[in-house]
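Model it.
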Amino acid sequence: MTQTIARKSLYESDYLLWIQETITQLKAGDFEHLDIENLVEEIEDLGRSQRKELESRLATLLAHLLKRMYVNMPDCFNGWENTIREQRLQIEVLLNNYPSLKSYWDGHFSDAWRFALKHTRKEYQSKGFNFPNEWELGRDINSIVNIDFWE
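Modeled.
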């Protein structure tokens, strides 16, 4: 009986060691031994994770803007405004660190709006609050990170 033992790659068995070895190989110019397939995958994932973070922070920001603008619960205003300030700050930091993310703004805005609206409607459906189907105000980066729409 022949047994086939599947050998895990270093990438699968010890990710941190794989990173260290990959860095060493890159610095030494040892391109022949690089795990190109996994290296390319990791680099692609870096870009995806930054776009995902932008979308997530934007969805959180929009949800809290919706609450602050349409939910008349003054005891909650301070908490919502704190979250709005924090998400705005983190979005600005993200866009400053990765300026090319600005080119994804419009597409991610639409997705983030859909997620924020769905979540906020579900959260407040039993309380009778009405939220607009479309974002009716400025959706450009400058407006979203600077304007207090509820004032």
